[in-house]
Amino acid sequence: SSFLSRHFDPEEKKTPQKVRERATKLSIIISKIHPLPRGFCYQRLLLPAKLTVTRRHSAVTTSKAYLRQTMAVAAMAGGVDSLSDRAAKMKEALLKSQTITENVVSILGSFDSRLSVLETAMRPTQIRTHAIRKAHENIDKTLKAAEVLLAEFDISRQAEAQILRGPHEDLESYLEAIEQLRKNIRFFSSSKGFKSGDAVLDNANTLLAKAISKLEDEFKQLLVSCSKPVEPDRLFECLPESMRPSAGSPANHGDPNGLGPHSHNHSEQQNSNAEAASFKPLVMIPPRTVPLLHDLAVHMVQSGHQQQLLKTYRDTRSSVLEESLRKLGVERLSKEDVQKMQWEVLEAKIGNWIHFMRIAVKILFAGERRLCDQIFDGFDSLRDQCFAECTGNNVSMLLSFGEAITKSKRSPEKLFVLLDMYEIMRELHSEIESVFSGKVCAEIRESTLGLTKKLAQTAQETFGDFEEAVEKDATKTAVLDGTVHPLTSYVINYVKFLFDYQSTLNQLFREFETGGETVSQLATVTMRIMQALQTNLDGKSKQYKDQALTHLFLMNNIHYMVRSVRRSEAKDLLGDDWVQRHRRVVQQHANQYKRTGWGKILQCVSAQGLTSSGGSSSAPGESGSGSGASRGLVKERFKIFNVQFEELHQKQSQWTVPDTELRESLRLAVAEVLLPAYRSFVKRFGPLVESGKTPQKYIKYTAEDLERMLGEFFEGKTLNEPRR
Predict the structure, then answer these.
(1) Per-residue pLDDT tens over the stretch 83-128
(2) How many C-beta atoms surround the C-beta of residue 514 within 10 A?
(3) What is the pLDDT of residue 84?
(4) pLDDT tens track for 374-414
(5) Distance between terminal CA atoms of the chain?
(6) CB-based contacts of 703, cutoff 8 Å, min separation 6
(7) Which residues form the signal peptide (predicted)?
(8) Which has fewest Cβ within 10 Å: 34, 627, 636, 669?
(9) What is the C-alpha to C-alpha distance for residues 101 and 80, in angstroms, rounded to an integer?
(10) Cα-atom radius of gyration of the chain, to the nearest Å?
(11) Least confidently predicted of 160-169, 291-300, 362-371
(12) CA–CA separation, 392 vs 441, rounded Å?
């Protein structure tokens, strides 16, 4: 306001030059007070003043109207003189106020026009002021951008120095320098307006390529230095206590790994213990090294060097795993190699292979999977690819032995080891699915599943071959003493072992049968084997010329079958009906033995043919003087009896009834028939001989002597063995 009062006197005559000068000054002052936006209209400053003047003019008009009304009222009232004076004064005051108002309106009008001129004059100055302010802002932005750019250059130089020194001294700092260099590349890639940006990018990319090359060398060197074959002792330490081999046990004699040969003392409880037991995790690489390998792998993947990383890891770790398995005792064998082996050697190798599979899957490969997961964390496809390629050949080497077994010539003794191999593959199935998860490992999973099916198929075929072999066994070697035939004991033991594998066999039947209960299938197969054995024994019994020995042989073997079934789980499967039916068969053969073996000698001590009545008037148990009997015939009977009994004693004391209870019952059955008949014969016809010369020549044995000698029957004595 002071500026306006000094420079905008309404009475002063102003030229355009003066107006521009004063307008410029006014613009500078106003911009110092508050920079106005471009296009601001100074006439807006007069609006409040104009509004006030207008209001005052309206008030004066209202006062005039009120004055006229008041004068009219006063005239009507009669106080005209006094009111006229007052009205005159009021009118005078209103006139003055009106004059002042008109003057102010005039002044303000002149200001309006002058400010319009002022605004037009100040517009160029305002534009220049805005441009200067914009330039200042641009300069500030440029300086800030330059500071950022220079900082990136400084960081790039520091990273370059660290990279040129290499990763050996300080790997973590080296990795940080690579990461910073990547940020620089991203920064300059996004700064397209930078004049020398392409050159900087080329230099940074070249430096990064060198850094990654050194990183590959460092990854390989670090991985190789930490990757050592796992000694068998370390693997055994990861086993549960119940599965660890004992170096001093007799079973380990000749076995370098201490695992011992395989035996058929199989128990399904062993499998459940294997599943429930806890295996300690194997540390493949020192834990402090794993994070460094992970960081190196991350940088190599980010640089697009996945293939180099994969090759390095595969070549290094695959050879380490292979050497670990070789130290354990795993070897790649062909069908021809297996075929050339002696059964004892092959059986031991199969037993070891079962342990190797468990150790490899649950400990070695599981440890390698954990290592891959840690090093390649965040890169699922690369992780699975590395694991699959470094374990594939080693899994193939393990499975090759199983494949060779399935392709080799089948034989009955291989059934149980085939079932053992089938069991371990089934036991490890869930573990294999977990360790070898992912699409890349599908081929490995399929190969292990394929071996499991081949083992099941071979076991089933071997089972069928065994049934056929039992029925068609053409062994010419007969057991001379009528004891249990080796084939019988072999088949019965075979069947008993089958029941140790009952759940495995049921699972095997489920894989190949479309309907029916697996328990009944196992019972049916067992009955068929038993029937095949009986059929074969019937054929072998025909080799004996002595019918008594034929029946003794069949009695011994069928009794052995019945007794073995009663004492095993086969009884529940075959049922009591089978047991009772075959016990009757045993009794039938015992009766046939007595009839054919002792019928002839019993005729010697009968009265038939000695008395004049033909024996019809007296029985062996009757008392009498033997009248009517020829002394010569009686002597001949005693003589024939002695010869026949001595022959039976000599022959049947070499025969064998291995079961003690059956042997005693058979002796008793013979004694119950022979001794009463002999006593009666001696009592009735003995006096005829005793009254003659040398009666002891004919009556050589008392009933007690015969009973004692019967006690020597079925003992399996040799010819040169002295009598008791």
Answers:
(1) 788 878 888 888 888 888 888 777 777 777 777 777 787 788 888 8
(2) 5
(3) 82
(4) 999 989 889 999 999 999 999 999 999 999 999 988 888 88
(5) 159
(6) 675, 678, 679, 682
(7) none
(8) 34
(9) 30
(10) 61
(11) 160-169
(12) 8
- What one-letter code names the amino acid at 26? L
Give the type of residue at 211.
A
SS3 category, 409: coil
Quote the pTM value: 0.65
Cα(670)–Cα(666) distance, integer angstroms: 6
- Per the listing, tokens 């190699």 go with 337
pLDDT above 90 covers what percent of the chain?
38
3-state secondary structure 317-374: HHHHHHHHHHHHCCCCCCHHHHHHCCHHHHHHHHHHHHHHHHHHHHHHHHHHHHHHHH
| Res. 23: pLDDT tops 50 | yes
Closest CA to 695 of 707, 684, 686, 708: 686
Cβ proximity of 340 and 378 under 8 Å: no
In the numeric block, the tokens 């190196």 are attached to 296
Structure tokens at 184: 């620089």
Query: Could you give the 3-state DSSP secondary structure of residue 424?
Result: helix
Give dist(CA 677, CA 696) in Å, integer: 19
d(CA 654, CA 719) in angstroms, rounded, equals: 7
pLDDT at residue 621, as a whole number: 37
What is the distance between the alpha carbons of residues 655 and 593, in angstroms, rounded to a whole number?
12
Cβ proximity of 163 and 207 under 8 Å: yes
pLDDT band at 334 (very low <50, low <70, confident <90, very high): confident
Pairwise CA distance, residues 231 & 479, whole Å: 52
Q: Are 537 and 485 in contact (CB under 8 A)?
A: yes
Q: Rounded CA gap, 575 and 561, in Å?
A: 14
The pLDDT tens digits of the residues spanning 211-233 come to 777 778 888 889 999 999 999 99
Token pair 């699409």 in the structure block, residue: 439
